[in-house]
Structure formats: C-alpha cells, structure tokens
Amino acid sequence: MVHYHHKESGRIFRFVTNNTKWSPTTVARIYRQRWDIEMLFKRIKQNYPLRDFLGDSPNAIKIQIWCAFIADLLVTIVRDRAHLTGPRRWSFSGVASLLRIHLHTYIDVLRFLRDPDRALIDYKPPEPSPQLSLQLSL
Prior knowledge:
This protein is mainly alpha-helical. It has helices spanning 24-47, 58-85, 92-101, 109-114, 116-121, and strands at 2-5, 12-15. The protein has a two-stranded antiparallel ribbon with strand order 1-2. The N and C termini lie far apart (84 Å).
C-alpha cells in the first residue's frame, strides 16, 4: 500500500502496488493516467456506436475504431474551446449530441455553445448560391 498526500487538496490517496521501487508520486501519476484512459474508453462506449461494425475484416474494424477516436478528439476540442470563452459548462455527451444535430446546418457551433439563445436569435441562413441547373437535351 502506497500513500500519497495531494498538497493542493490536502487529501491522502492510497494505492495498491507490488512495485516497491517507485516513489508514491510516480505511482499516483500512473494511476491518474490510467484513470484518464478509463474515462476515454467510457466516453467512446457511451457516445459512439461500436457495437455493430460496418465491415468484417480486421482493417475495417480498426478504421471504425480510429474514426471514433478522431471524433472523440474533435468533440473534446470543440468542448474545450467553448469552455475557454463561455460561461456555460457543457457535458461531453451534450456537445456530442449538439454536434450530431447541427452537423448539416450553418449555425456557428462555438457561438451556440457560448450563448445558445443569442446564437439562435441572430441566426441568418446563408444566401443560396447560384447553381447551374442540369438540363437534359433529348
């Protein structure tokens, strides 16, 4: 049993380890990193559909898992940027759901996360661009 005293919070943490050569600080740091990995896997399992795979090959499964990790990273970046400049605290699943809903809209997501009411009041859809029509000549 290793005891670690966290100076900022004043709490004492106890960790079970069989490595007697490492300092309590090293053991605490490793446990903290392990906990971060556990939280990552929990987020992936809760927010991304990895129960059913789109392909059967090992490569297809790896691609789908990597896509989930990339999506998780992008949602984390959006969430962190919104927290840096806005007063609201959004949960990870809240941001992920919001991004799913607004994926094909033209709303400024960061502005929406900072102040949803103001972002919706000030929302103006983009002007339609002139698009050539396809005319079939028979």
